[in-house]
Design brief:
five-stranded mixed β-barrel, 17 strands, 10 helices, PmbA/TldD fold, 2 domains, alpha+beta
């Protein structure tokens, strides 16, 4: 554990890989060295089902020979020279990529802000067991819960080091604590299940295990005795914890790779309004204690908060150095993807939003993945609750909601109930006039 916390050996291994690549004939190279330690406990019906502990290293080396490049990875670094020689040989045999190369030195991070990503608390298996049992007990105590799907508690600590042949060297550590619970209600073919979970960088920020368990139980009982709803058009309200998927589809469509390959339904929408006026989606890698925070991107470039959408207008593509060169645009420090994304809240309360919707369906669970990133066609299995006369009513299931994202995004309305619980956080979202396939 001390070796992990010090990071010294990870830094040394990354530097040795880069040096070996240069000796093997690479014109440029970068290396990433990672280590992760984790401990988790799963319980069910008051007994421990599994205790898992894992420790692992992995290393990756990317080399450039002219305009050719290749990457190799390994879990055990016995010979940096052998790994580097293999990477260089692969690169020499690869086709040329005119856009390949390391990040522009002018874009590299030179300072590393303290993002408070490390809680040095190391829980024991007994402590995690107690947390998991507390969550399960709270779930089973909810009236109407008939069984348990189990509960879990976990902890992990990971270190990341990046070194490049043009002089960059950076590292950071991040911890994570989690708790989850699954409850079952009903009997036979009428059984329903639901869950709750939470994950935080610092243990002190984690909701109590009893709160997680109680929420899992209450959500499950609410789903009992579901009915159907008729096929036709209806307003759909996405619960905040699943509404993040709508932002995820947009992020996938504005990635530099999708734009360069012409596989995005938003490929011609840069600078155009695709969401209602006032909508703003931000990506903030520097959020203190953020689940996806980082002091530099996957190429060592400096990072900063970035508006992906402002006033409903797409402001930028998500770019690393390679896709930026291909599209004739500068990297915006997103090698490795986005980080902490937020759709900023609206002005309506949750209750006001439901009242304004009038009639429709409040979706709390999505099933399957039926989204075409090329056309924007959207179709997902769903379950939730009817909205009747501005009130949430009886549960419904076995429905399919469908539309096209290009038509759905402009018809979105958002509530003001944003909570920072995940890496992507959004408020409740309503979409007018989607197609529902029911009975």
């Amino acid at each position: 554990m001390n070796a992990l916390l010090s990071q010294a050996d990870l830094v040394d291994r990354a530097a040795r890989l880069v040096e070996a690549a240069k000796k093997a004939g690479a014109d440029a190279a970068d290396a990433v060295s990672r280590r992760r330690v984790s401990l988790g406990v799963d319980v069910r019906l008051g007994k421990v089902e599994e205790t898992s502990r894992a420790e692992g290293d992995d290393f990756s080396l990317r080399v450039f020979v002219g305009k050719r490049n290749a990457s190799v990875s390994a879990n055990v670094l016995t010979s940096p020279a052998e790994l580097a020689e293999r990477a260089v040989a692969m690169a020499k045999a690869a086709p040329e990529d005119p856009y390949a190369g390391l990040a522009d030195p002018a874009t590299l991070a030179t300072t590393f802000p303290d993002l408070d990503l490390l809680d040095a608390t190391i829980p024991t298996a007994d402590e995690l067991t107690a947390v998991a049992l507390e969550a399960e007990d709270a779930a089973r105590a909810v009236p109407g819960v008939t069984n348990s799907g189990g509960a879990g508690a976990g902890w992990s600590l990971g270190g990341v080091v990046l070194a490049t042949s043009h002089g960059f060297a950076g590292s950071y550590l991040a911890s994570r604590f989690s708790v989850s619970a699954v409850a079952i209600a009903g009997e036979g073919t009428g059984m329903e299940r639901d869950h709750d979970h939470a994950s935080r960088i610092h243990r002190s920020d984690l909701p109590s295990a009893s709160e997680i368990g109680r929420t899992a139980g209450e959500r499950t009982v609410r789903r009992l005795n579901p009915g159907k709803m008729p096929t036709g058009r209806a307003n759909v309200v996405y619960e905040s914890r699943i509404a993040s998927s709508l932002v995820g589809h947009l992020v996938g469509a504005i990635s530099g790779a999708a734009i360069a390959r012409k596989t995005s339904f938003l490929g011609d929408k840069l600078g155009q309004r695709v969401m209602p006026a006032g909508f703003r989606i931000t990506d903030d890698p520097l959020r203190i204690r953020g689940l996806a925070s980082r002091p530099f991107d996957g190429e060592g470039a400096k990072v900063a908060p970035l508006d992906l959408v402002d006033d409903g207008v797409i402001m930028t593509w998500i770019l690393d150095s390679t896709t930026g060169r291909e599209l004739g645009l500068p990297s915006n420090g997103r090698a490795g993807g986005t980080t902490n994304m937020t759709l900023l809240p609206g002005t309506l309360s949750f209750e006001e939003l439901i009242a304004e919707v009038g009639n429709g369906v409040y979706v709390t669970d999505l099933i399957g993945s039926g989204v075409n990133q090329v056309t924007g066609d959207y179709s997902r299995g769903a379950a939730g609750f009817l909205i009747e006369n501005g009130q949430i009513g009886r549960p419904v299931n076995e429905i399919t909601i469908a539309g096209n994202l290009l038509e759905m995004y402009p018809r979105m309305v958002i509530a003001n109930d944003l909570e920072y619980r995940y890496a992507t956080n959004v408020p409740t979202i309503a979409v007018e006039g989607m197609m529902i396939a029911g009975r």
